Amino acid sequence: MTTQLDSGVMLPLMEEFYTIQGEGYNSGKAAYFIRIGGCDVGCHWCDVKESWDANLHPLTNTDLIVANAAKYSAKSVVVTGGEPCMYNLEYLTMQLKKKGIKIFLETSGAYPLTGTWDWICLSPKKTAEPIEDFFINASELKIIIFNKDDFKWAEKNAMKVNANCILYLQPEWSKRTEIMPLIVDYVMNNPQWKVSLQTHKYLGIP
């Protein structure tokens, strides 16, 4: 079983569902979400803490995950977690590509990059800084703003990404009322940044 996990032919699947993507550049698009269990980055404000313990989520045949994703009309898949890059994602992305599916990664960047991606959303966390490969390959940089100090964290990471990377600031959901005015002011004064919202939560969808 360990060999199958290492090769990526099985993955600890927490959940999979078809919905509307809620955050960042691809917000508003239909997509099939694959949420992989396991994360040791440890964000205290994480809204999916049940994903942290990979042992709680059954090892699932990757071919089955791909077959489920291919059933839906929107040929777009978001791979998220947890921290999906804890695992070898080469096999998953290879099989999705064979189905003509575009693949989007949501990651903290704390683990090595594997797989072939159409879009990489890098959301760095202070508890485990990203590996340099992610700054080179990031399509968008999404910084979660929990307090004023996070603006400094945002600029630190923005200095490292490639020139084509799109920059987003997103309020941490539980503090959105307090933080949103700060983000609005910051973006107006620093227009290289854009605002990202968790629109799926406003819409009441997964």
Can you offer a commentary on this structure?
By secondary structure, this protein is of the alpha/beta class. The chain has one domain: Aldolase class I (TIM Barrel). It contains seven helices and nine strands; from the N terminus they run H-E-E-E-H-E-H-E-E-H-E-H-E-H-E-H. It has a nine-stranded mixed β-sheet with strand order 3-1-2-4-5-6-7-8-9. Strand 6, helix 4 and strand 7 (140-145) form a beta-alpha-beta unit. The two termini are 31 Å apart. The model has no long low-confidence stretch (mean pLDDT 95).
Query: How much strand content do the residues show?
Result: 15-25%
- Classification by helices and strands: alpha/beta
Low-confidence stretches: none
Average per-residue pLDDT, rounded, comes to 95
Count the beta strands: 9
